[in-house]
Design a protein that fits this description.
Helix content is about 70%, strand content about 0%. The chain is an all-alpha fold and about 80 residues long. It has one domain. Helix 1 packs antiparallel against helix 2. The longest helix is centred in the last third of the chain and has 33 residues.
Length: about 80
């Protein structure tokens, strides 16, 4: 079985996290936008957490792929 669901999920969350983080950084000077959320830059924080989660999923996917390749070589 060559399909690992961690890779597309990690890629999706990494791209989404990167977009949200960049939007949060570039819109941080707009105080009117974040007045509803008590001046918390929710785009920045959500982007950072999504980016970290996506990168972790990519790392786990790549580590899992190496483990599968090593097991196939032993057999």
């Amino acid at each position: 079985m060559g399909i690992d669901i961690r890779f597309p999920i990690g890629l999706m969350f990494t791209i989404l996290g990167l977009l949200l983080t960049l939007f949060g950084l570039f819109s941080s000077s707009n105080s009117e936008l974040y007045k509803i959320s008590y001046d918390i830059n929710i785009n920045l924080w959500t982007g950072i957490f999504s980016l970290v989660f996506g990168l972790l999923m990519l790392v786990f996917a790549l580590k899992g792929k190496k483990k599968i390749v090593l097991e196939e070589k032993e057999v």
